[in-house]
Amino acid sequence: MHTAIAEIEQAQTRSDIPDFRPGDTLKVHVRVTEGNRSRIQVFQGVVIRRQGSGARETFTVRKVSYGVGVERTFPVHSPIVAKIEVMTRGDVRRAKLYYLRQRAGKAAKIKERRTAR
After folding, report:
1. Sheet hosting strand 68-75, strand order edge to edge
2. What is the chain's mean pLDDT, rounded?
């Protein structure tokens, strides 16, 4: 039975998802349906957590909009997510960045990870 579940999950996972970690700044292109019309809306923010595995994996993105912190959780392999773009790579020491909720302004800024040449 376990292998049957693994096969179903394997069929539902997406291969076009870029490699990203907590601390990275992403642009998540989300399909929004309003009535009978559908459009794509961009949600840009910092990844504060990534949890789960396989088809059940989710990630949470946080941004500050008009002075209010907004967090949104997306399933990684969902058809609602049209595209994920990695804008910057963050240099952080932990997997869950919940401490950003208490920070404001420059204190909430994440250092950019230096790339090896």
Report:
1. 68-75, 58-65, 37-51, 25-34, 81-88
2. 92
Neighbours of 99 (CB within 10 A): 12
Q: Could you report how far apart the first and last alpha carbons of the chain are, in Å?
A: 47
CA distance 104 to 9: 39
Q: 66-112, pLDDT tens digit by residue?
A: 999 999 999 999 999 999 999 999 999 999 999 999 999 999 999 99
pLDDT band at 1 (very low <50, low <70, confident <90, very high): low
Amino acid at 52: G
- Provide the β-strand partners of residue 31: 40
What are the CB-based long-range contacts (under 8 Å, 24+) for 51-57? Answer: 54/6, 54/9, 54/13, 55/8, 55/9, 55/12, 55/13, 56/9
**What are the distances in angstroms from CA 23 to CA 3, 41, 86, 90, 108?**
34, 22, 11, 4, 11
- The amino acid present at 15, given as its one-letter code, is S
